[in-house]
Amino acid sequence: MRSEEHVGWERDFPVRYLLVREDTDGEEEGVLWGRCADVEGLFVNPPPRPREVLTVRGCPRESLLVQAVADSAEPVRLLGDGMLSIELVDPSNDGPARFWDLEDTAVLAQWPTPGDPGRVGTVVGTGVREDDCWGSKRLPSSPRFDLWFPSIQEDSPSDSCRSIDGLFTPRPQRPTQPVHMIGCEPGAPLLALLRRPLPQKGDPITLWRLDRHGRTMTGYRLDLDTVEARPSVLGGALIDVTITDPGDDRPTLAARAVWEIWSDGVPTRPNQWAQFDTEGRSEWLHLTRLGPYRPHGLSGGTYHLDGQHATDRSGLLLALGEALLGPGANYGRCLDSVADYLCGGLSVVPPFTLVWHHADIARHALAGHVLHHLGGLSYFEVTVNVLREKGVTVVLQ
Q: What single DSSP character describes residue 363?
């Protein structure tokens, strides 16, 4: 389904959102459930989750997390946000894997496991969010607990352990914040849902946010379990639809201003992202599209990276993408994908020269962002090494 085909209607205000039931693969194909002028209440900063204490038992001493906390010259205590998964040895018997988000995790203590010097126990303080959509509430017969912390290692587990105390406890429900879809022209599937008695049980829906050209900028999933409708404040045959329990996987307040800039179309001026904080830059990076492909890529030439605003990870990646492909594009949303793109396929492939202006800004700003699985080097140092190892001549100025 092409979003550009559904943006035209004879009204004095544009279509900014489409309601789409996507296929299971999340591709930009699906069934149109409706279109609407705007959405209120989509952007929220959820309050911090109550702090809990978890005891992680039976971690291998050689694991990245244990080494970062215990064996480093500068031990890590603040792990930040991460994820915990329970991987199943027998999915056919125990069902799908289960997941928990861990917010603002801090190490409280660590000690060797009695009688097993090859394993370590760790106590952490964290906020816990359980994914209620998957898995049963019982512990499977043969679980494996994996811990994921991007501050230690991107895109792969930092540790595996045998058990976790304090994980399976009742947690109070946080109050929900409704989402209001304003000026909605419903399609047949949404009308059918609204005719059901409350509470409805609906499919997850995706809100496609459109720019003024009708291009889909991004999408967010919402749960349609409880939906109410009334005549729209915008008049005519439109309705306003309230989703009273949409779920909490929603863009933060920092994303609102970023979306407003992108609503005019893909940015064409460099460094427009520089005005935003880390959350805003992360959202900007999320909206960027992969740079244009060419059959064999272009090599050679000199590119200039403006490092004045590369003060965090997202800023560094945004500056790299703009240097090689221009505003609105990315050359990787993490270092692993940067390494992949350097291997070929994109419009810029090694060998080429990258002149990194104001390199000391990123060097100093990212000195504390240490990647322990790569020899304790900083994020800046690892980025330079990745570029050079793949055949880029990096000139630091």
A: H
- The tokens describing 17, both together, are 């959102």
**E strands present in 114-194:** 116-130, 143-148, 159-161, 163-165, 179-186
Residue whose entry in the numeric block shows the structure tokens 């693969």: 25
The predicted-structure confidence for 149-163, as pLDDT tens digits, reads as follows 988 877 678 888 988
Tokens of 105: 């995790």
Tokens, residue 313: 């990870």
Give the span between the Cα atoms of 311 and 384, in whole angstroms.
15
For the chain, domains (ranges, CATH) are 3-45+174-251 (no CATH), 51-165 (no CATH), 269-396 (3.30.370.10)
**Residues 78 and 65: beta-carbon distance below 8 Å:** no
Tens digits of residue pLDDT in 168-208: 888 887 778 899 999 999 999 999 888 887 766 667 789 99
> Residue 335: how many CB atoms within 10 A of its CB?
20
DSSP conformation letters of 271-321: TGGGGS-HHHHHHHHHH-EEPPB-SS-B--SEEEEEGGG--SHHHHHHHHH
The Cα–Cα gap between 107 and 124 comes to 4
CA distance 299 to 310: 25
**136 token code pair:** 């049963």
What is residue 62's three-state secondary structure? Answer: coil
**Angstrom distances, CA of residue 122 to CA of 103, 116, 158, 274:** 16, 14, 13, 38
- H or E stretch including 258? helix 253-262
Asked if 352 contacts 303 with a C-beta cutoff of 8 angstroms, the reply is yes
Distance CA(232)–CA(35), nearest Å, equals 13
Residues whose CB is less than 8 angstroms from the CB of residue 170 and which lie 6 or more positions away in sequence, other chains included:
none
- In whole angstroms, what is the distance from residue 22 CA to residue 32 CA? 9
Listing DSSP states for 152-209 in one string gives T-SSS-SEEESEEET-S---PPPPP--EEEEEEEE-HHHHHHHTSPSSP----EEEEE
